[in-house]
Amino acid sequence: ETGVTQTPRHLVMGMTNKKSLKCEQHLGHNAMYWYKQSAKKPLELMFVYNFKEQTENNSVPSRFSPECPNSSHLFLHLHTLQPEDSALYLCASSPIPGDSNYGYTFGSGTRLTVV
Amino acid sequence: ILNVEQSPQSLHVQEGDSTNFTCSFPSSNFYALHWYRWETAKSPEALFVMTLNGDEKKKGRISATLNTKEGYSYLYIKGSQPEDSATYLCARLMYSGGGADGLTFGKGTHLIIQP
Fold first, then answer.
1. Nearest to A45 by CA among A53, A55, B5, A5
2. Which residue in A60, A86, A95, B48 has its CB near the most CB atoms, within 10 A?
3. What is the average per-residue pLDDT within B36-47?
4. Interchain contact, B101 vs A97, CB within 8 Å
């Protein structure tokens, strides 16, 4: 375990379902991120939260809805997804977004399959 | 260069040999360059965070250099071992008016060390 925990590890959902991904860290970090990795593509930044405030939304469709109730928890709420949304979703955290001393700490990811 | 680009995409190296690969990135609004190692079924793990032009960092047999003016970084592995087999990702942190944005990743170099 890296200090960033993601649940569930695997998720299969229908296009009409609503589900949520959870990310938790107790590293004392103040910035949290959602990334998506699709096959043969680089990790794509989805959302950035800094001190619980969303500071970046990288043109993500509204069927993905993030929530950050406190600096330790980050959720990604999913509804009416498409099959092309099937991917590995990674959560990461860092002390602050521009910290020049530390890299991000990543979770193990949630493998999402939309059927 | 508009995106973060890594080459080669994949690399087979004999155990004991040394190797290196490249990360190219847009040099404008540069803030930091990160390197990560991503082993199969694990989380990406931070190797280096580099900010200054001419920076060189070392961790055991792995080292990295940075040229922010021309927009490239090299990662070197000396005396490759089977446990070095992984995908190596580089990512650029850009500074915008509101502060540092999230990391933009390349597709990675997939390194396989052959015994």
1. A55
2. B48
3. 95
4. yes
